[in-house]
Design a protein that fits this description.
By secondary structure, the chain is α+β, with helices and mostly antiparallel strands. It is built from 2 helices and 5 strands, in the order βααββββ. A hairpin with a 5-residue loop joins strand 3 and strand 4. The N and C termini lie far apart (27 Å).
Length: 81
């Protein structure tokens, strides 16, 4: 599975606390093994995010991604609820 990160994602990621960076790494590895691992709470989004999905990083942080036509996964945003 190949990943890419949008400029928005990288900008938001750089502003996250270091503690959250560690969780992002843990969850990205879990995602690479099984994108539907229950710990990720992977789910479809609606509204302005139609066609994208969200995974849990922590109870407060989520990562939004989309699958590109070439099969690559692009992480587009990190958000807090």
């Amino acid at each position: 599975m190949l990943f890419s990160w949008s400029r928005d994602y990288l900008k938001q990621y750089s502003r996250l606390p270091k503690k959250i960076h560690e969780q992002v790494e843990v969850r990205t590895l879990a995602f690479a093994r099984n994108e539907f691992d229950p710990i990720l709470s992977n789910h479809k989004l609606s509204g302005g995010y139609v066609g994208k999905r969200s995974i849990n990083i922590t109870g407060d942080y989520r990562a939004i991604y989309q699958r590109l036509e070439n099969g690559m996964i692009e992480f587009t945003r990190t958000v807090t609820p």
